[in-house]
Fold each of these.
Amino acid sequence: MLTSLKNRKASSNLCCLIWFSLCVLAGCSPEKAELHPSAGQRHIAGEASYREEEQVLSGFQMIAEYAAKPYATVGTVPPSPERMSRKKKAFLSFDDGPSRQTKPILRILREKGIKATFFVTGKSSPELQSYYKLIVNEGHSLGNHTYSHDYGYIYSSVGAYRTDTEKLNDLLARTAGVRPDIFRFPGGSDNHLSRKAGGRHIMAKIAREMTNIGYQYFDWNVSSTDAAAVTLPKQDILASVQSNSRGKNQIIVLMHDADFKTTTVEALPDAIDWLKKQGYQFETLSKSSFVFRFLHPPG
């Protein structure tokens, strides 16, 4: 009787694995195939609008990697990298600043007693340039988001991206006394607009070059979706942070620091409070911190 039960259990587990493989071949969506980890949402930034999509990892790659683990058993859902870490960490990140919203964001972070990472762009205004130093002085991290944020230019060639990045670092060195070694690609490392400027493989080429010269880039695994509209309702932003962070122990949260992102600022205190209640500790991104990437640079 016991042997029969074991056999039925083994058969059931094997069926689960076969079902998943067939599901991948048939093109099941991430919602239907639970073994697909969410790769977050990527944004394509414009001055007044953004677009977000989702990317998922290959199911077959996950099966191969999972089967090689000593804890793997047929029919068991493989833990994501976020789940494997016991300590819950949240890395808040703000793209596209500084802006008129930078000071309100800094005030909220100060009141909540947490630090964040700002992936900034180049600004010509003396007032906005002073915010670079303000961010650093308050204990937050600066990351490079390119000087121009111009897709057509920065993604036209490897040299163009590197030049634009170093132009911003020169500005940050003069105004804030730092040269960031972390950066975020405008649109994320898997954006499609880059192909129009530099071809199908331009992102991989840029990622390889920037990694080789000492930089580390970060995408995100939790999107606030505040880029889905010029001004997204506060409750929608909060709901996105909550739903996209569930089940993950380490999260890099994408938000935006831009003049028109007033509701992002409004949602921020509640988002922080909710994450704290879930047991998250807040840290800043660095080359030694948790990394999440849509595109891994080829060797």
Amino acid sequence: MNPNSHSTNVLVLLSGGIDSSTCVEYYKKKHYKVSALFIDYNQPNAAKERAAAQDIANHYDVPLLRVTLSNSKVPEGYVPARNALLLSVALMSMECESGIVAIGIHAGTPYVDCSLDFQRKMQDVYDLYTNGSVRIDAPFIQWTKSDIWDYAQMQNVPLNLTYSNNLSDLHPVSQTLRSTL
């Protein structure tokens, strides 16, 4: 057994985007037992996101669980309570009684469900159901998108395998990704 390995299971919410893909790398590098979860909640780019998530899972050799929520109507752009839904489905999908659910939310967004306060409140919900045995971790919660991009490049995250439907807010990313997409 690797002396650096953790016995802790981590389920990463994996959309196939830069943030969640970098989350997979983050935990793999720390030798956690990583699996990933892709949730198709009928978002407009689900097929592209699912393909990118599978490519990332294959690259990092992690199992990819898939959940499909049918008959949901999802607007383009901001989706109210999206991260609450994703974290709830992740808790339901846990294949073990303890561990970490990881989400790639970060600083610099106006969305309430990308905040430390949101993470704390969702942890309270998790604690109701798990008596504290499953923890929500958002390793990039205080990082900007540029910080994640820089980290991903330093760690050789295969950004060419990721998919983002919103390149406009990724100023350092947009030029590079547009040339590779």
Amino acid sequence: MILFIIVVALIPGLFWLFYFAGKDRYEPEPPLFLIYAFIAGMIAILPADVTELLFKKIILNRYIFYIVVVGLSEEFFKYLSVRLTIYSNREFNEPIDGIVYSTAAALGFATVENMLYMFTMGWKVIFIRSILTTLGHVVFSALWGYPLYKTKMTGKKHYVVTGILLAALFHGLYDIFISSKYLISIFIAIAIVVILYFIMNREMKEMEKESPFRNDA
């Protein structure tokens, strides 16, 4: 059963990983580097969960907890998983790479999270989590992915700091709405993910136009 849960949780994560990596047309990232970021994202869930457990009994306001603790800790540790692995490599060299690697880390994180939910709630939750929640992790992390590239190219840290804070805000709002008992709140949570997904896709197309490896201009 454990092996079954691991395999089932890995399938959507790896599918989305190579789906988004395929959007990097002009200088695709080495698959091994994508796996590095994916595994780093899987590891990132440990410090994020520890942080959430430490603050859960301290911060009782659910709105502050979801945004400041859950949103910020999860996005920060996903960011670190890219910053400490791929960031300094010469392969991180075009605008879309920030999105590709942030996506890889987010999917690794979401995969472990899905495993944990499946162990506690049953394997059927994967049908919802593989689309909505997994995609949520992707679009939230994309908010600091491109700014991370901008920071690398310019040396200005405010780009990535702003991106992480924005990601934490939307991540926290999503968690607030999705955990609500009201149907309208759940629709708002879905809308947040869908809107950010379309914005992300549009921005990725624009980033491809900025690629220094593009030779069809």
Amino acid sequence: MILYAISFSFIASTIENHSMPIVFSFTIAGIFYAINVTWLAAIYVYTAILVNERIQIYKEELPTFSNYGILLQEIIRLRDNIHHINHLSSAAMLTKTLTNGLMMATCICTFDHQLNTPKIGWLPVISTLTYLIPMFIDLSASCMASQWMHKEMGDFVHAIQERIALANIFRVHYNNYYKSHPERKQLINTNHNNLIMTGLRPIINDGEYHCLEQICMMHDSFYFTVMDTFDLKNLFMLSLASYVLSYAILLIQTRDSHIRFESIQ
């Protein structure tokens, strides 16, 4: 918001015979414009924070969680909420991605023109930069929030996999130690209850294993998506940067060709 407001104030300063009321009006307009274009990124960041906090709680409670079926239901609820947000915001995010990409390419072309124009002054150059930077930050924030949420879920899946491995190792040792001697069979239930009371939660039955397996399979569902076609992640920003630079180069070449044609005329 601050960068957009500064950009609009610099744009107002480039107007001939500008006055403080005009600059102030442009600054206020920049603030309202920033609110209008950054609300989607704010929703993504806020949602990612809430989801990550919930996943961290589940990760801390995983060793002593009493029922992994309930844990699976909670993760399904989180996944469905993310899917609902994607359904509501996909069209807006697609429009925002396309328009911001075109505007960033236009800013790059304008910036190149300003640098190659003698005696143009520094205010137009700064206004172009301060308008370009927040657009890039806006899209980057959305992608980083999505990637952050996916990474947090990945850490949770890693913790689940470690829990399954340890439980399987302990199950083999448990069966070999207690069931191999008739005298120890009487101590199975007592020792199992003591281990659960101490928070180790070592035994995982087949039903619980399938619940944890289903949670691991939902890892890729923890992304913000656009129209169910692509995920918002770091790779998307690389693709967007390639698209913006390619279009900016095309604009610069078209502008130079037009200038040469006019000079020939």
